[in-house]
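Box 3.1. Reading complex inputs
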Amino acid sequence: GENVEQHPSTLSVQEGDSAVIKCTYSDSASNYFPWYKQELGKRPQLIIDIRSNVGEKKDQRIAVTLNKTAKHFSLHITETQPEDSAVYFCAALHGSSNTGKLIFGQGTTLQVKP
Amino acid sequence: NAGVTQTPKFQVLKTGQSMTLQCAQDMNHEYMSWYRQDPGMGLRLIHYSVGAGITDQGEVPNGYNVSRSTTEDFPLRLLSAAPSQTSVYFCASSPFVGEQYFGPGTRLTVT
């Protein structure tokens, strides 16, 4: 069945350092991989996503890399700031983009220390 | 646009009671889904719908029913509440299985 594993479960970094969160997925047919950020008491919001036809995507201080052969993808946050502190979730699409379903990882709590 | 709305925001149930969590969206999205969020477990898919009249099971469907009679509404029914269903429930919608727009969530406690 479909499964997404996310590591680490918690991550603490100093302000200005980089943070990396990794996810592996089980369905080799998955072709869409979003990342969501959830601030305390708020709803999850999409911050970046990648499709399987590219290996890397950047948006300012965040980037996502995808290794289809190894079936893993990672979120990279550079120059971390206290406002980056949140829970981050990866997800993978199982099935088609019209009828499939998103399977989420377990989440990573990122703490950025000032 | 209000986006995705959920009611109630908080609810306390006794074991065995039933209730319906409401979810509505005004973005004309075909795809809607229900997730539950528990500490250390991430967001787990309960049920989802790819359009009016069509629903399917997610990862953890037991104890929950859904229906999709209109594009706008996707209620989640708890048939006989159990303490294991204590959780935060999020409804989400999207034009397809891409960026999910989440509602504000419902915090449910079953005693």
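In summary: The first strand of chain A starts at residue 4 and ends at 7.
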